[in-house]
Amino acid sequence: MLRITEIFYSLQGETSRAGLPTVFIRLTGCPLRCRYCDTSYAFSGGQTMSIAAILDAVAAFAPHYVTVTGGEPLAQSNCRVLLTSLCDAGYSVSLETSGALDISQVDRRVSRIVDIKTPGSGEVDKNRWQNLDDLTAHDEVKFVLCGQADYHWAMQVLRDFKLDTKCPVLFSPSHHELKPTELANWILQDRLPVRMQLQLHKLLWGECAGK
User: Fold this and answer.
1) Binding site residue list for substrate
2) Which domains does the chain have, with CATH numbers?
3) 114, 97 contact by CB (below 8 A)
4) Which residue among 4, 34, 81, 183 is least enclosed by CB atoms within 10 Å?
5) How do residues 153-196 score in pLDDT, each as one tens digit?
């Protein structure tokens, strides 16, 4: 059983899968409190569902891509079972995780999107740095940047861990805190081997759009 906030069908707004029609499974609960969080409604509530019921709900959309997100999905131990079940069902599966919890036991067929928390998030001390040793080319690393200090911090992490040699690296501006054009100019100026991304779903549908 898992606690589920919502299951919905939309375009993927982030990562290298941006623009792809995707079913999102949002799990309830999160041990972090990032100051820019846009899904705080998933911290509590939701409904308890069996994995079989979740699979039935996903199948109703007949998708190819499925994303498991939160909250922090790995905060629920049965999330790993769900991920494997989705892979076994033939879906292309991605996991959006804060990187504060161990990703090593996640099914290797899953694309793990690890969100490294910057100082500006208020949760930098929660990063589980061992996760970076477990990354493969099938995964992605994401930084949400609140300003230039975060940018320089993320650039140092990128270099120290040679992240661009392990998997795609994504830099995103925190909404209302960093202008996209500023981030774009910094990336070009420093010739960083990263992908800049904006939240496509918010460009299309505004602030009310989910993650």
Assistant:
1) 11-13, 26, 69
2) 2-205 (3.20.20.70)
3) yes
4) 81
5) 999 999 999 999 999 999 999 988 999 999 999 999 999 999 99
